[in-house]
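Order emerges. For instance:

***
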Amino acid sequence: MNVFDIIGPVMVGPSSSHTAGAVRIGKITRSILGEAPVLVKVQLHGSFAKTYQGHGTDKAITGGLLGFDTDDARIRDSLEIAASCGLRITFETIQIKDAHPNTALITAKGNSGKIVTAMGSSIGGGNIIIRQINGLKVEVTGEYYTILISHRDTPGVVASVTGILAQNQINIASMDVYRSNRGGSALMIIEIDQKAGNELEMQLSYLSGVVSVAFIEPII
């Protein structure tokens, strides 16, 4: 166990699961979108749905979508800040079969018109797992620098990506590839040991078959 596991995250709010974890779900969704969101629908399941206003989960998710860290005092006023920034956000409750009790399904639209959907669960102590991205079942913890690559399921894409990473001396900690169906859309999730820069993002974006690239900073 590390110190984070023992004492929990530095945060604003009463609950590591309902506030700190919720901030991180919102912040990772913003990273997946790759730009500032302008229109967001948040669907809350289980305990999130029952207590989100009392525990400030709505403020926490909004703070994350605005890019705030878990200890940012602005989280308390995040709903008002979002409104002043032109971010329209709605909350509703939902039942998701077999989902963790602290789960949020977020659909976010960015300035460019890009839309992403992410389902994340707050599993305790501020830790989270993103379990679904754009309908694909995944597992993203946000504990490492992470590259998300949306691409077409065609031969050579994975080899091209790993080749670019090798050229840039990027070490891969883990890598998973998820696809909707053979030859359809796919998502590469690569956890790496060091921060990646804008130049790497451009190199990956130019590869044949790659649709989009997003970077996620570690949440710890």
Notes: The first strand starts at residue 37 and ends at 46. The helical segments are 3-7, 16-33, 47-51, 57-65, 78-84, 157-167, 198-205. Strands lie at 37-46, 88-93, 102-110, 115-124, 127-133, 136-140, 145-152, 172-179, 185-192, 210-216. Residues 145-216 form a domain with the Alpha-Beta Plaits fold (CATH 3.30.70.260).
